[in-house]
Structures are given as C-alpha cells and as structure tokens.
Amino acid sequence: MKILFTISVFMLLGIAKLSAAPVDPDSLKQQVTVASDSLKAPLYTQIAGTYLNYDTITSKRKRYIYQENAIAYTLQAIHYYSRYNDTTGLRLSFDNLAKVYRSEKKFSQAKWFILQSNTLSRAKNDVPNIISSLLELALIKTDIKDYKLAMRDLNEALTLSSANHFPKTEADVQMGYVTLYNNMKLYTKADIALKRHDAINDSILHSQDVKVAVATDSIQRKKKVYLTSTKRLYKANSSRRIALL
Fold first, then answer.
1. Whole-prediction pTM
2. Going by C-beta distance under 8 Å and a sequence separation of 6 or more, which residues neighbour residue 219?
C-alpha cells in the first residue's frame, strides 16, 4: 500500500510538473534507467505525455512518430502499474491509449482500451470517470457508425450526470449528442442538443454569478456588523473614561 501511494503521488506530481513547463523526454529517459521499479511507471507516463501533443504537429511523419512513442511508453507504464496494482495509473494509461488509437483510426484497439478504463471505474464506483469513458466510447462508436450503441452510452452518461448533479458533465453529454446526431444527419435533433448544451452552460454561469453575489453580500454584512460593534465599543470606552474623570 505504501509503494502504491508513493507511485500515485509521484505520478500526480509529475503530471503537474509536466503541465507547468515543458519536460525534456531525454532527461526523463535517463531518470527511468536508474529509478527503482516502484517509480518507473510515473516516469514512463511522463515520457508518454511529452508525445501526446501530436495534434499540434503538422508533419504527418512526425505526428505518426509521436503517436507511436506515446503508445510504446504508455505500454511500458502499464507493465509497472499492473505490477503494483495501481488502478488509477492503469485507468489514465488506458484513456491515453484509447485517445491515440482513435486518432490513428484504429478503432478496435481504441474501443478495447476505453472499455478497460470503464471497467476499472465501475469497479471503484468512480462516477465521473465512468461518464468520461462512456463519452469517449460513444465517440468511437459514432466513428464506426455504430449509432445505436453510441446512443445507449450517451443515455447512460446523461442519466449518471443528472442523478449526481454534474451540470458541466451533462453539458458535455449534450455535445456528444450533437456529434452523434450530425453524423446520423439528424440536424434538427443536433440543434436541439446544442441548445440544451448552451442552456446548461448559461445556467452554470448564472449559478456562479449568484454565488459570487451572495458571498460579496455576506462580506459586506460582516464588515457592517464589525464596524457597528467597533463604534459601540469606542462609545462605551469613551463613556467610562468620562465617568472616571
């Protein structure tokens, strides 16, 4: 358990560091050669992460190399995550592999890995990641024109997001419907789903504005009470000083 905790913490710190500044993959590759087995998985995840920005690369050849490197190093990470039964690391790895394989239009592999992610999330009753994997699964099934099953995944994702009061996720589900309906050439339904998406986001923004207004009002009230109390205390002290004179 201690080793697993160490891996997870190291992985999260590494991901945070990776998002904060560019990481040199060659430096990480040197680190992984001397790291203990318990720390290899997050290092391999970081190396893979340096290749996951292939969407920004215009050269087809270079993009392919990045995709293949992302796959290779993620598979290395999976080897060590499996050894220490780190299900969080495994789920993240499965998600990344599904993303890359879908980009390569290798839909069978993409579907298989996102199903593994979904299975792990269900085992832990991790509702946000169950929904996330369902959305990715729906996109893959839409790509392969398996519209009926894509609809089933979106319907389950909508049920879960509504039941657990995840409005932002519910908006994401509506965008999934937009993609599905557009591919089915049901443009009227796609427009309705898009309007629902916009309405949910507007509601979220309004709710945030209300919370800010309530918080501001509460601060002003506390400030007013504090000033009133201070004035009363000052008057009371003044009266005592006069009485003493």
1. 0.76
2. none
